Amino acid sequence: MAGALAKTTIAPLDRTKINFQINQAPYSARQALNFLVKSYQREGLISLWRGNSATMARIIPYAAIQFSAHEQWKQVLGVDQDKVRKTSSWRRFLSGSLAGVTSQSLTYPLDMARARMAVTQKEQYSSISHMFVRIWREEGPRTLYRGYSATILGVIPYAGASFYTYETLKAIHMEYWGTSGTNPLEKLLFGAVAGLIGQTSSYPLDIVRRRMQTSPIANSQYQTIRGTLIKVYMEEGLKNGLFKGLSMNWIKGPVAVGISFSTFDTMQYYLREALNCAAL
Prior knowledge:
Elements: H1 2-9, H2 11-21, H3 29-43, H4 52-77, H5 89-118, H6 128-138, H7 148-177, H8 184-218, H9 225-236, H10 238-242, H11 246-279
């Protein structure tokens, strides 16, 4: 529920970001707005959520696995298990990173599907199943994991920084205010800060994975992480290349992560309350 709500909220911005990430067109707020307007005029309002079905197919299992894995990795690493002794920073970071690696590894082909559907017209891929069949037949099964290594390298700092920041802010709040409870607005704010830090820490690798995932469509050669980094930097530079669209990520990232974390914590609380009531 946390993942679905967060991603649906920012889906139009996500589609816009991906379209700028995969080509050499210069990015600006005006150009991003023009893309949204033209998409609406050409294909209607629903087109702004094109690829969201693929996003939901990915994000629901991805978020479920990530949050569940994070709870398990916290137990394995002893994060926040001892109320007397403080948890070290590296354990918090590592538990988040491992949760991200676990979920990405198990759902990566669905991430490929989302990227492909976000940057193509309906005539090319009419559905998720159609897209998988075409990729399997025309490009081979290995294509479903194109860009996987870049994604994992990116998710380590992203998930690590996000979970670390969110959990640390909650711990500071508890220590300062003397209570373990945080209201939904505070959770939303803590998640937004976590999203801002996490997105910024791994953004160039996000550019790399999108280029590698969609290179057959754009008729571009992005085969390796190193080669893609060099090619993008040499041809487009830092601001308009490896960090293209980062300003949009500073908007959508905090919103998405804030909604995701706050929804997860809030729903977890009410589900536990419901289970306790049922047990009584």
